[in-house]
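Entry: LacI family DNA-binding transcriptional regulator
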Amino acid sequence: MVGMRDVAKKAGVSLSTVSLVINNGEHVSDDVRSRVEWAMDALHYVPNELARNLSKNRTNTVGVILPTLRHPFFATLFASLQTALEERGMLALPCSTSDMKRGEEEYVDMLRRRMMDGIIMGAHTSHSADYWTSIGHPVVAFDRYLGMGVPTVGSDHEQGSRLVCDLLIRTGARHVVNLGGPRSQFHDLADLLASGADAEYLSTSYHSLSSYLVFRSMLPQAGVRWSFMESGEVDDFDSYARAAHDVFDRYPDADAIVCADITAALCVEEARSRGLRVPEDVQIVAYDGTYVTRLSGGGLTSICQDFDAIARLLTRRLMQLVEGPSAGEVDDAGADRVPMTLRIGSTTR
């Protein structure tokens, strides 16, 4: 088996010089670097990545914890994260909490044992903030609060909700119904005290309270009735169809529905099966903007999250923890919220 000593001998340089070239070290002339690279090619030498990483106390692997990869939202996010992490020389290792018995705990254990360099946490957790802040290794949260000192990155849901409300007020909606996940998972701890939210939100980590509060205030102020209906856990796909059916039974006078992409598509089909015209009788707005919203003729009107921008910012935050902040990477205040956009389709007036 060809080793570094063989490369050094063929290139006529020292073993330490070969090591510097392999690890992109400084103070190596272009001529010497070329000779070493020529020797490596001639001998078909492949550097031992595991050994290199161990010497740097790195694995170049990041755990990405999500509820399920079967959901279009999380599949799209993970694809963007793979690209963003790969650009930084990192491998994304997926963990679906609904499909693994230990889920997040197994990944945290791997992080503590230095089997990965960091974690991007994007699933609901029942662990307290003390659990996450005591890990002592790089963790970045997606769209949720995990505790003081754990960076959080996500979309600007307050802005996204305002886009929805402005649209529906402008198009004459009279009764808007939101379909969403369990309210027991709502949580914006940073704004909790200022908002005067109910104590029920204190035990959760999901970052959607700001969105809820926008709907609760903006629509009634404009004379529009507003209701909220739970649509089930994100990994319970059967609950989406039930919610799309039940919302029309529970709120027969609703003339606008706002919900995640899959449920929105099912609501369109349910409305038409009941003889309702979309958007004349009922407007439907999808919240997320994944590929699902483009599958029907005319497409769903959607509030779109910028998955690539979210992934780049999550990666940037994590790499700052892994490598330490470098020159030119000073964070701007509020840079952890990614703007959302409105895409008009055929399901609103």
